[in-house]
Request: fold
Amino acid sequence: MLSPHESLGIALIAFYVPIVPAAIRLMYRNGQIRPRLAWWPLIPFSLIRIAGGPVTIALEQYSSPDHDYLLSGMGLYSAAILLLNVGAVPLIIATLGFVRIILLDNYTSPSRARILTGLMRGALAIAICLLVAGGAISSFDTPFEIYLSRTLTFVGYVVFAAMHVVLIAFMGFYWRRKKDTLLPSSRIVLRGGLLAAPFLIIRTVFGLLEVALQDSASSPFNPVTGNAVAFALMALLPEYVVVLAHLYTGFSIAPDRGVVAREGVEEEELETVTQEAAKNVLHFITLST
Reply:
């Protein structure tokens, strides 16, 4: 009989195999104009989740009956921790892409977008490095290495959570104060980001609880050795909802997001204003002569 974690591994493969072609199609459809940051992260995320399925299954089968993962499968344990912890990072990148779309599509000066993106990318790089480093040494069992792994992973998730709070605050501000001034496509993107936000918060909380209770052998929040139901409901299910929300949002807007049409209207208005100005100048010259 399959163990709960083996069932989750099979479910990861089954649920994310159809997501990959959909994510590729979305990138091909919406990636013709920049920014593309909201679409391409769904592809590596889906692939990471598919890769996590076989690793989880192999770890369950390779482990001893008492589930002593650290002694029986250190390599598989590290791989599973890395894949399951780092996997949520692309979703934050996609959320940042939503914010970039709102800024770049609705404002002529992209300075705010560049500043925000630069800061977020720096914080994101730090969070990824911390999570990868913490996961890489998680299979060692010396007291110092266990403490270091826990500290690095916890700080990585704190940075991760802080980024998400900033992005949610930004989207909430624009929804309350400037929703009516945005392009229709930007309003759809903004709504999609806000609807997905609570589920990504749940996923981040699971990561924080996992690290905070890492010293406890009976912690239910370890994605490999903990409670499979908690992992499914607080991590895998929220992630899947976020992915579906991003896919639905992407396919709900025009591939050009209405930016081309808006630019055409602005150019037409500019041309009309220029022509009127030229007529006034000619009329003034005629009167003067």
Observations:
- The domain at 4-257 is CATH 1.20.1070 (Rhopdopsin 7-helix transmembrane proteins).
- The radius of gyration is 24 Å.
- Residues 263-278, 280-285 have pLDDT under 50 and may be disordered.
- The CA atoms of residues 29 and 255 lie 6 Å apart.
